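Example 3.2
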Amino acid sequence: MSTIDVNNLLAQMRQMTAQVRMPETAVQAQPGGSTGDFSALLKQGIAAVGNTQMEAGSMAASYERGDPGADLGRTMVALQKADLSLRTAVSVQSKLVSAYQDIMNMTF
């Protein structure tokens, strides 16, 4: 392997790492150290889940119609991402309800 191939491989790995870490940076605190609005963050998360569901649905419909640019692999990945995001949202919702119930059952 030549150094050009190694450098190309390292660049691709860095790009993939940046793509994976992108959701982490979106959830971090706002600049200036102030905390974000919880309801806005929750709405943003729900909207992201909805967008993922819509995108996967449109890709599946496009593949079912037999559109020329439709790819089975990309469609399946989009459907799996949509499923995972929905499962994550349901899990977060369950944790929030559980935390709310714990707080409501506290006695002072």
